[in-house]
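Please decode residue identities from the backbone states below.
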């Protein structure tokens, strides 16, 4: 059984001898890492949920300059604030619609001042703050 991936937050981790916090690297510093269990909407944070990711988009709130990562998942879209890149935090989870089980993953898209989770016909309102 594979060990669960743990979050890497709080401080940057330098790449030394091709490794940074257990990950392979090459001349890059790891600022943070959140495993899918930390952003998939299953707030029990266990390893029993089989969630897959397929897409990630960035969005900057034009009014507050806060930065977000929109992570397309098989059960919805996770919104992670990355304004402080060493302290990412889940600020919202948009679950898949109950009638929308045919879509395996959720691509997320940004445009102008708003964002839209994939596989839906309704765009999100501008994301100003959570």
């Amino acid at each position: 059984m594979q060990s669960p991936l743990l979050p890497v937050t709080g401080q940057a981790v330098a790449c030394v001898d091709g490794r940074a916090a257990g990950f392979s690297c090459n001349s890059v510093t790891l600022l943070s890492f959140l495993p899918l269990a930390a952003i998939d909407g299953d707030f029990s944070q266990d390893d029993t949920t089989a969630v897959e990711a397929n897409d990630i988009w960035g969005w900057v709130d034009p009014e507050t300059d806060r930065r977000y990562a929109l992570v397309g998942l098989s059960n919805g879209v996770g919104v992670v604030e990355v304004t402080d890149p060493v302290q990412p935090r889940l600020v919202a989870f948009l679950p898949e619609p109950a009638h929308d089980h045919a879509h395996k993953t959720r691509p997320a898209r940004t445009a102008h001042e708003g964002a839209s989770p994939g596989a839906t016909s309704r765009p999100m309102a501008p994301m100003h703050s959570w």
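Observation: The radius of gyration is 16 Å.
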